[in-house]
Amino acid sequence: MFTDIRFVLNCIANDTNLQTPVSNIVSLVEDGSDDPIFVEKLCRMLFRVYSDNGMFEESIWVFDYMEKSGFKIRDKFCRVLLLALNKRGQMDMCFSFFRRMVGANVDITAHSMTTVIHGLCKGGKVEKAKDLMEEMVSKGIEPKLLTYNILINGYCINGTVDKAFKMKAIMEQKGFEPNAFTYNIIAGGLCKLKRYDEAKMWSFAVIKRGFPHDVVTFSTLVNILSKTGNLEKAKLLFESMEKWGVRPDIFTYNTLIDGYRKKGNLEETKWLFEEMEKGGVRPDTTTYTTLIDEYCKKGKMEEAHKLLGHMEAKGVRVDTVTYTALIDGYCKKENLEEANRLFEEMEKRGVRYDTFTYSSLIDGYCKKVKMEEAHKRMDHMEARGLRPDTKGNMEEAHKLKGLMEVWEVGVGTVTYNTLIDGYCKKGNIEEAKRLFEEMEKLGVRYDTVTYSSLIDGWCKKGKMEEAHKLRGHMEARGVKPNIVTYNALIDGYCKKGQLEEAKRLFEEMENRGVRADNVTYNTLIYGYCKKGEMMEAHKLRVGMEEVGNIPDVYTYASLIHGEILSRKSSEALKLFSEMKQRGILPNVCTYTTIVLELSKQGRTDEALRLYDEMKEYGITPNDCLYSLKVGSQVPRS
Question: What's the pTM value of the predicted model, to 2 decimals?
Fold first, then answer.
């Protein structure tokens, strides 16, 4: 009978001519039945039908009707709507409905709370998700391991891995042991921040702790090895996956293909592409684009075009990056007709242009001295709201700067910032200074990024007087220093041993409301440890925790090294033990410091155990540790 009723309700929900208020539907049933259980079941069914059909407002009407009618509303019943809203990305409504559940005294379970937390994290609202969990804990609802892992993952995706470490520590205090998923998401988060040494240790921890080997662990390690230039090791690990009963996935293949592309090894990328097709792994947009880009860079436009055809035949989406690689390749070959055809094809297919697409085509026209066409593209670009500026790519910035000067178009702040930052990072401070002076002559506005890049450049050169002058220039122009500016200056003064000036800047930034981060604290801690002022270093370590910053591997490495220099090896060993208990895996410097100290004390067995441990984690020992022999020989210092 209920199957028939559900069919009728589905018809009512989906036919606009039949749709009617919930109260009317229920009244019709109540008129023909005096059984409240039957009416309650009908409401539950109607709630599910509306939720399944994406009619969320109507679902909430049912909820309101049931609450007013005094029906018992269970958490499991409400979760149908929470899951449906989460799936559709309707997180504001999901969160609002969850609040309604709490207000209606529904017995909330950890499952429903976790569903809402998952949705908030997917939407980037990790702090809101954490606040919700804390509120629910205060109401007696205890999170599950999955809840904590979702929050840790949210922080890692947001790039706030230090907050992920803090959440992991809270999770462990509550008696939950991290699982393979915990370690893998932290390793992935560290990879995004290019903290590959730490990421490698977290990935190896999965294997060391005896968790089942899965594709995520292997793929993360392959990614780390590829990104750090260890392609041969990455390939060996990739080839060993089958022996462990793990099949590589699209991420594993794409990581290796990209690694070999960056090395310019086209043959290896082709071999991997063929292997993935043989293995039943379907290449995606990233796979095809990586290969197409490599063919284009090598001037093999025929092969690139064939691969584009293959990609389209397989129904794989061609995106902006794919088209831009091809357009750039054809422009470099001076085949502007084909480049222009692809450009127009992008528009027909609704594929978005970006600055790189335009700059490739404009550069092609300029090389052919077709300045009228170049001007048209420039106008088209500006009409689309794309600024002739680019971030993070010096070659593109130089290209656009040159073109804009030819056309007498004002070069923007972002282009200059890209170039100044690039030259500073390369150590060419004189060229960066020249560009800075050029900006002033042309009346191009300086911003915090301009000053911070140049100040950092002077600090890295040890020219603190120049950095200080520039900081004065910055303040006089009304440009406020930010955390990057202060960190650069503090680092410069610490390296010069001018700790008083570094500490003064630290206090100044706090007074101005610029919140110190881990880089700030670690720089100062390292400076004090180097000078043997351990009391000040430990005060800073306590201070950083009080404001919510979590000590990391660099904090502990500095403190351990400082205690060894101060001849307090017992304190150093305590810190080493503490960092491991907190889930912070030591780096090669920390292991080396401790192993050497244990060896000097004649505690060879302990030293060798740690030496083996670091190798298990995939950390390559320093040269000074290779002389450590079983039983007697002490490593050279």
Answer: 0.63
